[in-house]
Structures are given as structure tokens and as C-alpha cells.
Amino acid sequence: VNEKQLEIARKAIQKSVEKLHQKKAIQIESVDKTLNSINFSTKTEPKSDENLLIIEAVPELLDVKRKIFAALNEQFKGNDSVIFVTNTSSLSVQEIGVKVGPQERYGGLHFFNPVPLMKLVEIIKNVTTSQQTVDALKEFVADIGKVGVLCKDTPGFIVNRLLIPYSGEAVRMVERGDATFEDIDIAMKLGAGYPMGPFELMDMTGLDTGKFVVESWLAMNDPTLNVQRSELVNKMVSEGKLGRKTGKGWMRRKGVFGRERNPCPATCERPKPPTCSTFWCNPNCYLVCSGGQVLDTKTGKCKPLSEC
Ligand SMILES: NC(=O)c1ccc[n+]([C@@H]2O[C@H](COP(=O)([O-])OP(=O)(O)OC[C@H]3O[C@@H](n4cnc5c(N)ncnc54)[C@H](O)[C@@H]3O)[C@@H](O)[C@H]2O)c1
């Protein structure tokens, strides 16, 4: 980590909290308070090492993560309160932490993207994690205003164990020509009450991330892991269509990514949402407002899909 990288991180965090303020999710004072509470440093030197919780969130590379834990273990040797956790999404918590000395004070905390908005944190109990550590992690998660769920160190933990096979089946439906990706998204939003369809979700989390998880699960040779490679996804990834991060993905393929969604045609007779300036039509002329909201025809206002 160098100063340039720290500056990139600081700017990204500032942009993220300012966006929350613009969306009226937080007060203006919280923007400075949040930024001032973060100590940006190229060294792992905390202000105090009393009751320290170290959350490792470097890229999903086993060797890099192990190296970091080996160095941290050396640095905090003799400190019997420090807790070490990894934020890994797809690697084995146990395998990452082999170089951690106090195994009873080691586990996982899996946050969700975008972290400032997503309430869930999966607390991962490694075989060696003590109950005292689990309790401390539960307390920390509650203190930062999130909701913790407990899971063993199993592939995908809870959310991804269910989501990865679900996204995979959605892609296979498109590959077989059963339905379009737009209709599958609409079906899951309006029929299953999901706030986002599987393709919108893949665009948000990154098609490369999904591919990476599929490959690592296939390498585990575990028959209970329900995954298959997708030629279509592999082709999209090789073409740089990774979703929002590259501005191209499922949505952009049909020219309906973000603000470039199909505008409502003049022939559409559905009432226009008065509270929403950007809206577009899905193939069935169902009006969808920006931010994934839908038009409530009774009140004429936009409301979240989840309230439909
Ligand atoms: N992106 C997600 O949606 C998401 C969600 C939950 C968990 N995770 C997990 O979080 C971790 C990071 O993922 P990400 O998407 O934020 O990756 P990222 O590449 O966006 O960020 C990783 C950060 O680590 C820094 N870094 C790289 N090598 C380092 C080193 N040797 N020492 C210190 N810092 C180093 C990089 O500069 C970068 O800022 C992964 O384990 C991933 O599985 C990601």
C-alpha cells in the first residue's frame, strides 16, 4: 500500500458518504465525522492495540491474505485481546488463517456490497473460533448498526451458497432460450418480491467475481456445490463486460444500462410518474422509475418494488 493508493481510497470513501448525504440517508455532520474517524496509513500501526479487531479485506488471493496474517500475527504477538478476521467471500476461512497464532481469536466477518447500505454481516465461526470471540464479533456488528448472522466456514457461507446456484440457473435459462434476461429480472422482482433481478445483481457484483467463485467451487470437487461453467458468462468476462465496474454487462448488451434504458415510447398510455424524472418501459410497458422503483398507479407515486 502506498500514499497514492491511500488517496484513491480516501476519495472513494468521501464520494460514498457524500452520496449517502445527497440521498438524505445521513446528516451533513456525519460526512466529516466518518472521514475524521478513519486513520489512513501505509503501516499497520493502530492508535491503540487494546481490544483491537483487525479486518483483512485485501484481494481474494490466498497467498496475499496468508502473508498479511503472518505479518500481523508477528506484530501483535503477546497481545491476548486482539481478534483477527477475514472478509473473504469465497475462500476457506480456516485455510487463510493458518499463520494466525491465537486460533480461538480468529474467524470471518463477511460484509456486503455496497457496505454503507447493506445491513447484513455474516459472522463466520471457524472450527477453532471461541464462543467469546463469536460474542465479541456479534457485539461489534450490532455496534456498527448492522445485523449479524452466524455461519460455519462453508463455501459461500449463507448468502452466496444460495445466490451463486440461483444466478447460474438464471444464466442457463437465457442460454437455453427459455426467457430473456429482462423478463427473468422482472419475474423475480414482481413474482418473488426480490428488490433486484439476478442479472441486475450480477451487473452490480461483477460478472468476473461470479466467474471466480464458480471456478473456485469447481476446483473443490464437492458434489454438494451446485455450479456449472457458463460459456456466455466466460465470453462476456473475456470481452470486459463485467457489469457496472466496466459500464458494460447484461444491461448494456441491450442498451438498457443505467441511464441508457429504453425511454418510454410516445405510444405508451400508462400514466407517467410525476415524482420521478427518469423512467423507462420494460417490454410489457410496465413503468419502472429510477432507483429500481415502480409506479404505484393508485397514488401516482414511485415506490420500492419490495412494497408492491
Ligand atoms: N466486492 C465485493 O462485493 C465484496 C463483498 C464482500 C467481501 N468482499 C471481499 O473483500 C475482499 C476485498 O475485495 P474488494 O472487492 O474490496 O477488492 P478490491 O481489489 O476492490 O480492494 C482490495 C484493496 O486491498 C488493497 N491491497 C492489495 N494488496 C494489498 C496488500 N498486500 N496489503 C494491503 N492492502 C492491499 C488494494 O489496494 C485495494 O484497496 C476480498 O476478500 C473479497 O472477497 C468483496
TrEMBL record:
Entry's family note: Belongs to the 3-hydroxyacyl-CoA dehydrogenase family.
Catalytic reactions of this protein: a (3S)-3-hydroxyacyl-CoA + NAD(+) = a 3-oxoacyl-CoA + NADH + H(+)
UniProt keyword Amino-acid biosynthesis present: no
Any Pfam family matching the protein: 3HCDH
Domain 3-hydroxyacyl-CoA dehydrogenase NAD binding, first and last residues per copy: 2-154
EC number of the protein: 1.1.1.35
Enzyme kind, highest EC tier: oxidoreductase
Record PROSITE patterns: 3HCDH
Record-annotated 3-hydroxyacyl-CoA dehydrogenase C-terminal domain positions: 156-251
Protein's name according to its UniProt entry: 3-hydroxyacyl-CoA dehydrogenase
Entry keyword annotation includes NAD: yes
Organism: Medioppia subpectinata
Cellular component terms (Gene Ontology): mitochondrial matrix
Alphabetized InterPro entries for the sequence: 3-OHacyl-CoA_DH (IPR022694), 3-OHacyl-CoA_DH_CS (IPR006180), 3-OHacyl-CoA_DH_NAD-bd (IPR006176), 3HC_DH_C (IPR006108), 6-PGluconate_DH-like_C_sf (IPR008927), 6PGD_dom2 (IPR013328), Mito_3-hydroxyacyl-CoA_DH (IPR052242), NAD(P)-bd_dom_sf (IPR036291)
Residues at which CoA binds: 16, 23, 89
Keywords, ordered alphabetically: Fatty acid metabolism, Lipid metabolism, Mitochondrion, NAD, Oxidoreductase
Organism taxonomic ancestry: Eukaryota, Metazoa, Ecdysozoa, Arthropoda, Chelicerata
Site note Important for catalytic activity, residues: 110
Pathway connected to this protein: Lipid metabolism; fatty acid beta-oxidation
One term of GO molecular function: NAD+ binding
